Predict the structure.
Amino acid sequence: MADTVVRIDNLVKRYKDLIALDHLSLEIKEGEVFGLLGPNGSGKTTTINCLLSLLAFDKGTVEIFGKEMTPTSYDIKREIGIIMQNVAVFDELTVYDNIDYFCGLYITDKEERRRCVEEAIKFVGLEDFTKFYPKKLSGGLLRRLNIACGIAHKPKLIILDEPTVAVDPQSRNKILEGIEELNRQGATVIYTSHYMEEVEQICTRIAIMDKGHKVAEGTKAELKKMIKNTETITVEIPEPSEEVSREISELPHVYKTEYKDDRLTVWCSGGKHNLIRVLGVLQDHDMHIGRVYSELPTLNDVFLEITGKALRDKED
């Protein structure tokens, strides 16, 4: 069984009358890419700040690598890489010098540091930009620089808080591929994002937070089993009669139907042959059938049903 890298137990953080974290407990195993999701104000950033001992909390414990995390736990902090949502680099330094500076906070040997810096530059694909200053970089390249500064010292635990905000698709793919490669190389990753497709792609286990609570946790498959919707069927047809609508709504496992913009949408809970049954009813009534879609639930469906909220563009 994999060792526990992060253990958060019964964490409480208050801001006067506001409870930002309400008895939060999380356990992250070695080798996981752990997704931390939640709407604005759910407590994700507060959790990360408490985890890093950047923020004092009122109750609970935080352990990393089996040791209590404190503001002076420098031995633990050397093994952590942090890439926050806001890019944190020096405008006065070149790409190479920025990475060298941050790497130097952890590695004092010049030859070892040089090797780590060059590997980080190659890893994020900035070989052609080493002499550039940050202000000359595009948003996507700036994000890559931010990541290189956070991982050059080869940390065992990497925390990425919205690393792909406002970047182009090419840079986003480069970043996601990089995170997966870091994980394959042995790093444990904590990842927050408002882009569900990213979480679907790279996270092995996910926790959903809301109002300082952990409201759900599990693998993608486990989370999808927690909600009512298991299949959404959409069929392009002329407006159905009341009889057709009634027959479809009475099919096994159908719990909701809607007709709008020449599309009949049918929501199902359970069952294996829902699409065949829906099409059977339409064919029995000689309905002209256009395009047909059958979609399994996504993480976004899970998130919306569990929290009742949509993810927004900005972090809490």
Remarks:
- The two ends are 34 Å apart (CA to CA).
- Confidence is low (pLDDT under 50) at residues 312-316.
- The CA atoms of residues 13 and 57 lie 5 Å apart.
